[in-house]
Amino acid sequence: MTSDIQYTTPGMDAASAARVIELLQDRLNAANDLHLTLKHVHWNVVGPHFIAVHEMIDPQVEVVRGYADDLAERIATLGGSPVGTPGALVAARSWEEYSIGRATTQQHLGALDLVYRGIIESYRAGIKELDDLDLVTQDMFVAQTEQLELFHWFVRAHLEDTGGKLSTEGAGSEREAAAQAG
């Protein structure tokens, strides 16, 4: 990828820029996947708490769509070319397709607990690596992680009992989390 970079931001070498672009592209793929997954949940959630969850999800979709744009523009700023096509996303992602269709609010929220857990863990890994590469991009990752953690808390508040235990505790897959939460 370094050979594809004709220029980068002042003060950053091409090799560092290439790695930062890789980290940004991975998060761009995750943001595009997440906002589509959240919209899928918005359309497919049913049950007694439908309207509360339906309306909770849409603002998350809009924020995450904005993250995708910010990430893509940072890639371009560093001299890269952001890739936002569906085929490229599917080919590059390291996670499975969201596995829940029409389901109750609790089932979708259980599955989303695992989705958010995975995306936040990958953001935090990027934050650590960026500490030595690019503090500007790291700052972007930190800000996005803060908001994603808030959204995760919104989801988890529906899955928590009064003692603080999550209904999804120990779940290893979306389907397992959905079953435990449902």
TrEMBL record:
Identify the Pfam families for this entry.
Answer: Ferritin (PF00210)
Entry protein name: DNA starvation/stationary phase protection protein
Q: What are the Ferritin/DPS domain coordinates in residue numbering?
A: 21-162
Query: Which family does this protein fall into?
Result: Belongs to the Dps family.
Q: Which GO terms describe its molecular function?
A: ferric iron binding; oxidoreductase activity, acting on metal ions
